[in-house]
Amino acid sequence: MASKTYFRPTTKMSLASASRTKRKNHLHSVDQRQEKLDAKLRSQNLSRGRFFPRLFTVADLAKLPSDLPSGPVVYELDNGRLVVMPPPGDIHGAVESNIGAELKIQGERRGLGKARSGGVGVILWKNPDRVVGPDAVFIAKESLPIRTSKEGYLETIPELVVEVRSKNDTGPEISKKVQDYFKAGVRVVWVSDPSKRTVTIYRPEEKAKVLRENDVLTITDIIPGFELPVRNVFQV
To answer: Which end of the chain is less enclosed by CB atoms within 10 A, N or C?
Structure first.
């Protein structure tokens, strides 16, 4: 009797499985080619600077307009990123003037340094550029003469920086700015808050100290004899 050879027919299921495997391998190959192409394009675009935000410099800042069609604006640079802020309101301006005047009278006129106010630009560092506009500063006698950039911004780091908190300033934003001041070499930062009628004193490696209306603001290591009742800070 002759032997018979049996062949197992290919089922529809096995054919479908093979088709899926082939399609999967093809798609994987396509994905790999696309990834390589995307990587090449990213490399080309990065070399052209297309994936980086425009970083501004001190020179750029000096050329920007202070008035736009929508109204006046104030600028700062946060490591080359342009920060646009609205101009301060009346109460903000009053508090700034109160502190600035006392720094002028009790500090500068006694020959202990130089006071500046009105959002004077201070270059904290460069490349990328960090330029801020504190509401008032005091530069101690030992740091004189004052150095400025060709654009007119302060290059001398003040010993004291004063910020008047506006309604749009968040806690994290203030904390970051205070740390940037310390990084640049500022010794003391005062943050006055008109809504709470408080002045918070920051020093590196020290816990922040909050003064209220019955307290007196002093800074003996920078302006000996300076005294300013906190309630006077918020007179409008």
So the answer is: N
Instruction: Kindly report the CATH class assigned to 58-233.
Output: alpha beta
Other CB atoms within a 10 A radius of the CB of residue 71 amount to: 8
* Distant-in-sequence contacts of 66-69, Cβ < 8 A, 24+ apart: none
Give the model's pLDDT for residue 45.
Answer: 54
Confidence of residue 162 (pLDDT cuts 50, 70, 90): very high
Q: Is 103 left (phi over 0), alpha (psi -120 to 50) or beta?
A: alpha
CA distances from residue 176 to 165, 182, 183 in whole angstroms, order as listed: 14, 10, 10
Which pair of tokens denotes residue 47? 């070399």
Helix (H, G, I), strand (E, B) or coil at 139: strand
Task: Please state, in angstroms and rounded to a whole number, the distance separating the CA atoms of residues 55 and 29.
Answer: 39
pLDDT of residue 38: 55
For the chain, the structural domain boundaries read 17-52, 58-233
Instruction: Answer for the pair 96, 73: CB distance below 8 angstroms, yes or no.
Output: no
Answer whether residue 42 shows pLDDT above 70.
Answer: no
**pTM across the whole model:** 0.77
